[in-house]
Amino acid sequence: LQLVVNDGQASxxxxxxxxxxxxxxxxxxxxxxxxxxxxxxxxxxxxxxxTKVNSYSTSCPYMIAADISPxxxxxxxxxxxxxxxxxxxxxxxxIKKYSVPDSASVTYTGLAVDKNGDVYLSDSSRIKHLxxxxxxxxxxxxxxxxxxxxxxxxxDDGQMYGLSYFDGLELVKVNxxxxxxxxxxxxxxxADQSAHSFYDIDIDxxxxx
Length: 209
What we know:
Elements: E1 2-5, E2 15-18, E3 32-37, E4 40-45, E5 51-55, E6 63-68, E7 74-78, E8 83-88, E9 93-99, E10 110-113, E11 119-122, E12 126-130, E13 136-141, E14 143-144, E15 152-154, E16 160-164, E17 170-174, E18 180-186
Parallel strand pairs: 14-18
Antiparallel strand pairs: 1-2, 3-4, 4-5, 6-7, 7-8, 8-9, 10-11, 11-12, 12-13, 15-16, 16-17, 17-18
């Protein structure tokens, strides 16, 4: 689609602007790895090791946390906007799904999607449970072993694990229905990193990353 535009002045020359309409966000292909780092997506073909790098498109805000939904689409939360997006790193393209309720002055550091498509968000001090269409189901302060969790994810058995850096880097169990936490393990920190360098986590079939 091309538009011809000018500023309304008879002396001005018209300019042509091309508008590209995307069909929508596609699921992440099987066998593809994904790393989101600052302002770029790194899409990695795990079979042959090729890496495709895409900058954020203008429709993508700064994302801090992401997870893959049951339909294979990648969801991300804007760190300082409280908005959840569907992300296609291959185009790249972001489409806003909804705004998160009660997000004034909140920075989100974790996002996880359960097997039903419900979304869980962490702002380090609270865990929010949202339906797949963004309705707020519950909100709880963290309690128990730690009072704050950065990122989290569900394991295959449905248990949620979280990452906390309030006393070094620690792995904790999280009850998503109450916010209560339980110590699991201390995690080693690379010599050139600090505990504050780690936010969201992802759990796959083999390990925690």
